[in-house]
Amino acid sequence: MPISSSLLSSFCNFLDLLLIDSQQESPIKKKQCIKDNDESIKITSIICRKLPDSTIRNYIYNLINFIEDNEKVDGVLIHTIFILNRLLYRGVYINSYNVHRLLLTCIMISSKIIEDEHYFNNVWAKFGGVTLESINTMEKDILLLLDFKLFVSHENMLNIVKSIK
Length: 165
Prior knowledge:
This protein is an all-alpha fold. It has helices spanning 5-23, 56-66, 73-89, 99-114, 121-128, 132-145, 154-164.
C-alpha cells in the first residue's frame, strides 16, 4: 500500500518552513539547538558537527518508508508533528545542523507509540546513520524535555491535520 503522499508532502512543507525561518536567524545561533531565552534547557545530543549530505526531504522519505505498517504512517507523522511542536514550545531551536537527528529520534519515538510492533533502537540507529549510544541519548534527552508526556488527544490530532493541510 502506498504511503499517504498528501500528508507526507504537507509534513515536508512544514519542515521546510521551519528551516527557512531558522535560516533568517543570526549566524551565531545557527549551530545552537536552543533559544537564548531559556538557559536551563540543553539538548546537545541532536547537534551534528557538519551538515548532513542528504536533503531533509530525502531523509524523511527514507525514514517513513522504513516503517513497516504503511497504514500507520499518517499517525506516526501526526504524532511526530505533535512532538516537534512541543519541543519548539519548550525552546528547542530547529536548524540544518540538528533537524536530521531530531527527526530521526522523533519519528522513532512516534513509531513506538503508534505501531504495535516497532524496531529496536539499534535498527533505527543503523538506518539513521548514528550510533546506538547517540540515538539512546537523543531519545532520553527529548523524553526528559517533554516530561515523558507523549499522549495526543483526538482533538489535538485533528487540529494538527487541519493546520498542515
